[in-house]
Specification:
alpha/beta, 564 residues, Rossmann fold, 6-stranded mixed sheet, 7-stranded mixed sheet, 2 domains, single chain, 21 helices
Length: 564
């Protein structure tokens, strides 16, 4: 008997159909992977299982959990079920966490609510959970607030909250999106261990096919609110028949065609660098633990040196909290270093003043990880894209400003008419294109891309990587590409730096560093990175040995336009 069974689930929001005849089952100790593009209906399926639908949402069909239909449960019974029987890891940790409560209080909350334990006992359990997800209380006190943690660290807190009450079913909606490969491997191993030890069911929603192939016993592929293909993981991936499934598989292995691969020539290496960093140090003061003793400072960046040449694409990889973003903020002129020097176009961004300082900032722009969070939702796209043009105030008129905005939108594959829209009218991939357009509007020499594709599904990620490569060839841009996804860094960069505990432990041509890593930490990163083909071979071998029957179901819908 399955732990949970979804039978012919139909869902609409304000009478607009979202899900159509969705059916699947999850048994105890089984993992079902649910994959598909953004907007395909994956997350709304999970929210329907928790009955956390948006206003105007109406669900029909059956969602049977332990013989009870969740769709017919009263709210009081649903409150007892959520967190206790069914736990959920939400996709965006900063949205899921309360910004005014400490992480310790938020993890303890479900324990006191469902089990009635004392605050002291709940706090002790919270500390144990933090340790299990790789955040020991000695380094990450429970008194910290969400904004004091990195994106990957916040994701681990959300996972600790979800498993606190040892639920029978865990719904993980993109649980490793913001995590680097080493922590991702640890979290996935932890989830595997919990599922096996507690005989728990797991619904794993992810756009990373390599993660799904490694974790899931069965896979369901979703498109436009329908499951178009489903079956045992190994046999399904080896025999994909639906055009949409095949396109997802191809996109996951995509490498930009316009990528400039040759190693930098000796002549190019002798050119004046755009950015020159020498012995950079950035410290942070820690709170006092004693009235009479001052805490030694925390060194986030420790004597880092490198150069970025015109037209070069330099990758920066390392685990969450290693100092990548701090280093990027220093180059952008947002974090003044405690030691060493930074030169951008031959100028120090911190000592420059007036027009000289504006010229430095104009030459270096940034693309953030979460474009929606970096946009003002009340402003139209024209105003959002034009924001950096304040650096050119007095130099260009309104007509030139409008022309530059339209040119930037056209460069990223959008239309000039899109400038009249608001951010919520675009998909995730389109919003990332708008973020790139905003970075291009001042015609910079260098773009710092901080995890620009980590939250995108594989097909949109392929489009954005093609766009980065195309803009590099077309405009001669240089990139500092920060990412925890080694496959993305391999596809888009010439050289890569590996950062650990604030130091650059390895630096060289990307292929050489990843294929023949010398430093133990680099070898750990490379070994921890999920590989789709390897995972499929391993899963298929296991299924053959276990005698798993091939029961893949094919959708009866005819291929749409462009899918034949």
């Amino acid at each position: 008997m399955p732990l949970i069974a979804v039978n012919r689930l139909n869902l609409s929001i304000h009478d607009k159909p979202i899900l159509r005849d969705v059916s699947f089952k999850i048994a105890r100790g089984e993992t079902l992977g649910l994959v598909g593009e953004s907007g395909s209906g994956k997350s709304i399926t999970a929210l329907a299982m928790m009955q956390l639908l948006p206003h105007g949402g109406k669900a029909e069909g059956e969602i049977r959990f332990r013989k009870k239909n969740i769709l017919q449960m009263p709210e009081s019974e649903l409150c007892r079920m959520r967190g206790r029987r069914i736990g959920m890891v939400f996709q965006e940790p900063m949205t899921a966490l309360n910004p005014v409560k400490t992480i310790g209080a938020q993890i303890s909350e479900s324990l006191t609510w469902h089990f009635g334990v004392s605050k002291r006992e709940a706090r002790e359990r919270a500390a144990d959970l933090m340790d299990r997800v790789g955040l020991p209380a000695s380094r990450f006190p429970l008194e910290r607030f969400p904004h004091q943690l990195s994106g990957g660290q916040r994701q681990r807190v959300v996972i600790a909250m979800a498993i606190a009450c040892k639920p029978k079913l865990l719904i993980a909606d993109e649980p490793t999106t913001a995590l680097d490969v080493t922590i991702q491997a640890q979290i996935l191993a932890l989830i595997k261990e919990i599922v096996k030890k507690d005989d728990m069911g797991l619904l794993l929603i992810s756009h990373d096919l390599a993660v799904v192939a490694d974790m899931a016993d069965r896979v369901a592929i979703m498109k436009d609110g329908e499951i178009v293909e489903t079956g045992p993981t190994g046999s399904l991936f080896a025999n994909l028949t639906h055009p949409y499934s095949q396109s997802l598989f191809e996109a996951s292995n995509h490498v930009p065609q316009k990528r400039v691969r040759p190693v930098l020539s000796i002549a190019r290496r002798r050119t004046e660098p755009l950015v020159k960093v020498e012995g950079l140090v950035r410290n942070y003061a820690l709170p006092r633990r004693s009235l009479f003793r001052k805490q030694p400072p925390f060194t986030a960046v420790d004597r880092v040196s490198f150069k970025i040449l015109p037209g070069q694409s330099l990758g920066l990889v390392g685990e969450s909290g290693c100092g990548k973003s701090t280093l990027a903020r220093a180059i952008l002129g947002l974090e003044e270093p405690n030691g060493g020097s930074i030169s951008v176009l031959g100028r120090d961004p911190f000592s420059a003043r007036g027009k000289e300082r504006e010229a430095v900032h104009r030459s270096v722009q940034v693309v953030f990880q979460d474009p929606y969070g970096s946009f003002n939702p009340r402003h139209r796209i024209e105003r959002i894209v034009a924001e950096p043009l304040f650096l050119l105030r007095g130099e260009i008129d309104e007509g030139e400003k409008r022309r530059r905005v339209e040119e930037a939108l056209l460069n990223v594959g959008l239309s000039a008419a899109d400038k009249e829209k608001y951010p919520h009218e675009f998909s995730g991939g389109q919003r990332q294109r708008i973020a790139i357009a905003r970075a291009l509007v001042t015609k910079p020499k260098l773009i710092v891309a901080d995890e620009p594709v980590s939250a995108l599904d594989v097909s949109i990620r392929a489009q954005i990587l093609d766009l980065f490569a195309d803009l590099r060839d077309k405009l001669g841009l240089a990139y500092l590409f920060i990412s925890h996804d080694l496959s993305v860094v391999r596809a888009i960069t010439d050289e890569v730096m590996v950062m650990n505990a604030g130091k650059i432990v390895e630096h060289g041509p990307t292929a050489l560093v990843f294929d023949h890593p010398r430093h133990p930490y680099t070898r750990l990163l490379v070994s921890a990175a999920p590989d789709l083909k390897t995972a499929i071979r391993r899963r298929a071998k296991w299924e053959k040995k276990a005698g798993v029957a091939v029961t893949a179901k094919r959708d009866r819908m005819t291929p749409g336009k462009g899918e034949t």
